[in-house]
Structures are given as structure tokens and as C-alpha cells.
Design a protein that fits this description.
Blueprint lengths: L3 H8 L11 E5 L2 E4 L4 E4 L2 H4 L8 H13 L10 H14 L5 E5 L2 H13 L5 E5 L8 H5 L4 H4 L9 E4 L4 H10 L4 E6 L2 E2 L5 E2 L4 H12 L2 E5 L23 E4 L10 E5 L20 H13 L2 H19 L4 E7 L2 E6 L4 H11 L1 E2 L1 E4 L2 E4 L7 H20 L1
Parallel strand pairs: 3-15, 5-6, 5-7, 7-10, 10-11
Antiparallel strand pairs: 1-2, 2-3, 4-12, 8-9, 11-12, 13-14, 14-17, 16-17
Helix pairs in contact: 3-10, 4-10, 8-9, 11-13, 12-13
Length: 391
């Protein structure tokens, strides 16, 4: 039988490169490759599989919904999409908020970009090294020149500020406040290496937006849905954004994105101004409902506890400088730039991790991972780290 990897390379566009593994099944926090080898998954589809693999609540919800009503488009209403929207409004804490559903994080940020433009102002301020997606509008707000350069010219009007530098950001706003629509940021920059915003930064940005009547857009695509030990990462700062974008963990493996608008932003999207055929799909929203019903306050408290234990154990390993992040979104900073070698060695030892850059390993396991699995994953990670350091 031809391997999955060989078939992939013959059929799939080369934008991802050759995959290292061909995966065929999963249960809980474990996946199995085509040769029958098991791995503890400490990546979870890049923070997507919030409830792991085969969670009974998701399986039941999706199975029941697909047998009843799979797709209706947004020309018609359906129960699951309304239920998810109401639950998200409750999690935000604003009964007047409104939700736009799409299929991914980049689409959620595209919608946020369009909401900013609908203010009539053209300037959007985004952070250096931030990541908001790969479609053209989201890419325009992504502060990584290497990703933007091949596709320029991108939509105009985006200017960049150093992440965490409130004085620079204030100076940038004051250069043209009348034409500035919004400030966008991630509470923790994930794709750059899990870099949290400095203490107090989100509060000061909220105050700056209030002072100049700007929209604050917070990208919770990777940090949301309990990942950091709060349902939304911004909640630890006790602020409320005007626009919240989310995706990844909301669908527990199924493709969903959401843009939540509130306050002055909630009335900017009007009939015909934006849309999507598949956004708010009933089957995907059934999965999201299962996720939201499962990830309650007690569940999130467990995420905090597991994250603290994981960070403490990993920080004690040889070759680790520090562990940053919150909850089960951690960046392991290494003494040497061997993160990619650690990833490769991890496959040998039965653990899946990720390297956003040469000196950082990212850990974003399923939120349902058990303590014993975390301990086993740390032991396997230690072996991978030792292999990479010695080689």
C-alpha cells in the first residue's frame, strides 16, 4: 500500500512541504500514524482540537445534526447557529453584542478589517510580528514582512507598532487620529513564539481607543475558548474589546470562525456588506455548542491548573531558558536554536510538538489532556530535547 505521505506529495499543492507523518486515527490526546505508532499530541492541530479526538459530546452532536439538517446557507435561520451566538454573547458579557460566523480565523479577521473600514476611516494599526491570517486583508494586518512580501501590494492603510510599546502606539495614533479606525492585537502572539502582552498593555490600549474613539479589535483565534485559563485571554485584563475574532478551538476540529461586534461596532455590518455561504453551518455549530457546553468554569480552572504544572515541569528541564504563556498555550524558550530538531526527535519518542521559530517550542495540547498524559509527554519531550541538544 502506498504511504499517505507519498500520496500527499503526489496530490497536494506544495505550499505545506512534505508532511512528517501520516495520521489515521485519534482518541483523547493521542493520535496514531499509518504504521500504528501512537503519539501524545501536544499541538492539537495548532490549538484547534480543544476537546481532543473523538470526544463523545462532539461526536453525538455532529452525528445527530448531520442526520437532521446539514446546510441551509445564511438565507435561512437554524437552531444551532442561534444557540452558539447566544452562548458567545453570554461569554462576552454583552447581551447587545452580535456575531458573524465564518469558517476560519483568517476570515474572522477579514470581517474585522471590513468592520474597521465601515467606520469611514482608513487607518488600522497592527503589531509587529503579529499574525492574523493569510488571506489578503488579514495578511495586510500581519506584522511579518516575509509572509506579506510575495503578495504585495496588499490592502492599504495598515501601519505597524512594536508589540507592547504603548508610547509608540500613542504617537502613531496622534499622527492622524481623525483617520484612524482601529487597533488590532493578539493578547498572546502565538505564531511568533508565544509572547504575552506586557502587564497593563491591554488596559492602556483600551484607554487609548476610548480616548480617540477607535475600535479595539482583539484576535482570540488561538487564545480563545479556554486555551489560556480564561475563556477569552483578554478577560484577565478586565477589558472589553469592540471586536473579537475567534476560530480554532471553537469547533473542536471542525472549521468555524466568529467575529463578535459590540458597542459602536455592532451596527456597522448591514445587509449586503459582508457574507459567506458556509459560515454558521448547522453541523459545525452543533460541534461548537458541544464545546461551549463542555468548557465551563470548572473546566477552565482545570486548564489553569494543568498549565501551571506543565510549565513548572518543562521549565526544570535541561536546555530550557524559560516557559512563557498561560494555561495550555506555552512557549518553551531554548538555550540553543534547536527547536526544529526537537520537533523531529519528538516523533521518534512519541510526542508531537511545534516550532514557531528556531529557539521556541510551542505546546498547545488538547484541553482535555489528563495529568498522567502531561507527565508522560514531558518525559518524552525531555528525551527529544536531549537528542536535539546532543546532535
Amino acid at each position: 500500500m502506498t504511504s499517505l505521505i507519498k500520496q500527499w506529495n503526489e496530490a497536494i499543492a506544495n505550499n505545506y512541504g512534505a508532511p512528517p507523518l501520516g495520521l489515521v486515527s485519534g482518541a483523547g490526546s493521542t493520535v496514531v500514524d499509518e504504521e500504528g505508532k501512537s503519539y501524545i499530541d501536544m499541538l492539537a492541530g495548532i490549538a484547534v482540537n480543544s476537546l481532543g479526538y473523538g470526544h463523545p459530546a462532539v461526536v453525538q452532536a455532529v452525528s445527530q445534526q448531520v442526520a437532521k439538517l446539514a446546510h441551509v446557507s445564511n438565507l435561512f435561520a437554524s437552531d444551532p447557529v442561534v444557540e452558539v451566538a447566544q452562548k458567545l454573547k453570554a461569554r462576552v458579557g454583552d447581551s447587545d453584542a452580535r456575531v458573524f460566523f465564518c469558517n476560519s480565523g483568517t476570515e474572522a479577521n477579514e470581517a474585522a478589517f471590513k468592520v474597521a473600514r465601515l467606520t469611514g476611516k482608513k487607518r488600522v494599526l497592527a503589531a509587529h510580528h503579529g499574525f492574523h491570517g493569510r488571506t489578503m486583508g488579514a495578511l495586510a494586518m500581519t506584522g511579518q514582512p516575509g509572509k506579506r512580501a510575495p503578495f504585495e501590494p496588499l490592502p492599504a492603510g495598515v501601519e505597524f507598532y512594536p508589540y507592547g510599546d504603548i508610547e509608540y502606539l500613542r504617537t502613531l495614533v496622534e499622527q492622524d487620529p481623525a483617520n484612524t479606525a482601529a487597533i488590532i492585537l493578539e493578547p498572546i502572539q502565538g505564531e511568533t513564539g508565544v509572547i504575552p502582552a506586557p502587564d497593563g498593555f491591554l488596559v492602556k490600549v483600551r484607554q487609548l481607543c476610548d480616548e480617540y474613539e477607535l475600535l479595539l479589535i482583539v484576535d482570540e483565534v488561538q487564545t480563545g475558548v479556554g486555551r489560556t485559563g480564561d475563556f477569552f485571554a483578554f478577560q484577565s485584563a478586565r477589558i472589553l474589546p469592540d471586536v473579537i475574532t475567534m476560530a480554532k478551538g471553537l469547533g473542536a476540529g471542525l472549521p468555524i470562525g466568529a467575529t463578535i461586534v459590540r458597542g459602536a461596532a455592532k451596527d456597522l455590518l448591514t445587509p449586503g456588506s459582508h457574507g459567506t455561504t458556509f459560515g454558521g453551518n448547522p453541523v459545525v455549530c452543533a460541534a461548537a455548542n458541544a464545546v461551549l457546553d463542555t468548557i465551563d468554569a470548572a473546566f477552565i480552572a482545570e486548564v489553569r491548573n494543568k498549565g501551571e504544572r506543565l510549565a513548572e515541569r518543562v521549565a526544570a528541564l535541561p536546555g530550557v531558558v524559560e516557559v512563557r504563556g498561560r494555561g495550555l498555550m506555552l512557549g518553551v524558550v531554548l538555550e540553543r536554536p534547536v527547536a526544529k530538531q526537537v520537533v523531529s526527535a519528538g516523533f521518534k519518542h512519541g510526542v508531537i510538538v511545534n516550532a514557531p521559530n528556531d529557539s521556541v517550542v510551542r505546546l498547545t495540547p488538547p484541553l482535555v489532556i489528563e495529568e498522567a498524559e502531561l507527565d508522560a509527554a514531558v518525559n518524552r519531550f525531555a528525551l527529544a530535547l536531549s537528542d536535539a541538544t546532543v546532535s
